[in-house]
Write the structure tokens for this entry.
Amino acid sequence: MTDAQARVPLLAVERLTMRFGGLVAVDDVSFTAYRDEITAIIGPNGAGKTTVFNCLTGFYRPSGGSLAMHARGEILRLERIEGFRIARRAGISRTFQNIRLFVGMTVLENLIVAQHNPLMTASVFSLAGLLGLPRYRAAERAAVERARHWLDRIGLTDSADWLAAALPYGAQRRLEIARALCTAPALLCLDEPAAGLNPRESAELNDLLLAIRDEERIGILLIEHDMSVVMGISDHVIVLDYGRKIADGTPAEVRADPEVIKAYLGEDEVAEVPEPIAVPPAEAGVQDQPHEPAALGSRFRGNDG
Amino acid sequence: MTAASGLAVDNTSKSRDFWAPLLKDAVLAALVAVLLALPLVGLQTYDIGGGALGIRTHFDWVAIAGAAVFGGRIALRMLQQLYRGRPRGRGRILPVLAARGGRPAMPITLAGLVCAAALPFLPFSSRYLIDLGTTVLIYVMLGWGLNVVVGLAGLLDLGYVAFYAVGAYTFALLARDLGFGFWEALPFSGLVAASFGIILGFPVLRLRGDYLAIVTLGFGEIIRVVLLNWASVTGGPNGISDIPRPSFFGLPFARSAPEGGTTFHQFFGVEFSPEHRVVFLYLVILAMALLTNAFTLRIRKLPIGRAWEALREDEVACRALGINPTTIKLSAFAIGAMFGGLAGSFFATRQGFISPESFTFIESATILAIVVLGGMGSQLGVVLAAILLVSLPEFGRAFAEFRMLIFGAAMVGVMVWRPRGLIAHREPTVRLGLQPAAR
């Protein structure tokens, strides 16, 4: 979509390799995610998508290759940063395939915990906080306001004081995205955000992700199996299979790529083979598909909004 | 016709709905009363000469107690029915307490506080009662300290008594070798215990749950064994005696002051009484425990406190949000240990003598039981559980060798009926303050 203009790289992955003993989970993968774009990583189960994410967000130390993040005018080599520092220094935050909320805490608390680092600075090692200095109070109010902004956005303002565990599944997925956004990231990594959502919810998710890209100017890196999400909103799709990159391009290019069709449908390219995920013609018109316009327009506001 | 009979059925079922639970409740209450009354008023010992005891039975009194409770219970229910308009299932005091967990629980907390502060001055209070209160408060403070580690940060610690010991020995050694008084040594006890908390924290950073519990258990034993065997410093099994008592702003509680000083009773011109010191000790530990509580309640609402709870919920998610699990865990260990050390220092000054025998695993287990029984993370729950766990064995002395049996049964009972502890409610640290109903 921004192809015509000069694309500004946000994250450059060069020859990334990840080995677990004899198993090569990610094999020499290179790709670039650009600023103001949604980049999708797709591929059959076990293709190494989540491993790439875990390398990016510091949960794994890559066996080889480099991960360069363009953050605030400087280039940071992610593989050299200690795992938990990546979120703050490089501005990368993520969600998880199986939702990892702080279920025993309230929705609002989940979003405040995500702002731990700025609040910790404001509380001066908890001293200003213990004394209740105005500086800390102001910081906390600002944190609550930021949380409220995202709660309004995902339509959970009314459930702010509920335990996160009490939310329905789809709302938990949205809350996890909001929590990642509360760290004020430059790149948001979403691991299967549409998993388990119904068609209406995944249409709403598309809407939210587009808004994050366009209004908040946050780049998105996405792992997804739901092709209506991938083909509908991605600017750029990367296909992995057995840890290797087999295709890289716009959704239309990728959809037409014979390698991709082979990976999804099997070596024989026979139509009878049960399709794990429908990629080809069936999905052609996804972008134009009418997705309940009311839901799209409501932009996740609560029903009363 | 059908309508009429339907109505009749409706009526009887309604009255059955009211009477059946009421009677059941009253019978249960009466049963409890009879069980309690049997040993308390039903059996009386008397001297039959030659130092032997005989037993008189008063089953009539037991029957009266049972009947009184039965009738009283029904009367109480009827009254409630009158005022509330509908019968409630059971007397749910704890959920009510819990539901009023935060600010609305103020009246209850305040009443408890006033009672605690006034205890030594009440007409019926005795030296025994104040001593018992002091012991309860030591455990309350230890429970609150451990609550930071176990309840908030979710790090199962079976060796908490180690920090209690470190605090006690720090004060004892400072007093013996450097002549420190209680108040001068108190901050050092806290600091040294906190350092030990960090020392324990480092090797267990990567451990969770069962594994963490085993290592902390080992740590507790190491401290005890070192205290036992390093005889040249700690006095070994003989312990350290003649630990100084705390003074009241420099005024000692003694019959006569050493070389020209003034004692508490001389300064205030009151008759000397050994009870002054007992009451003073009680008030000191009350103040220390309340400070612990105020600190914990406050820090829970700060980023560090929220990070503790987040860490308990999901460490992986914490890392992804840029929270450094190392500092968060170590701070929880250090702060929990600090409170343990402060309590230990108080324990040393109260006893005047310490030895490794006071710091065995059973202490760790008791403190942990207080936290778990009270409801993980609940400050009020710790108080209730400490009162229950410390005073139950005391009041159970009448049952002699059965006392630990009753103690154990009570714990099992609580865990069966309230598996998440006495008060399982968790007050959010921050609210958006929206009233959904009003919108």
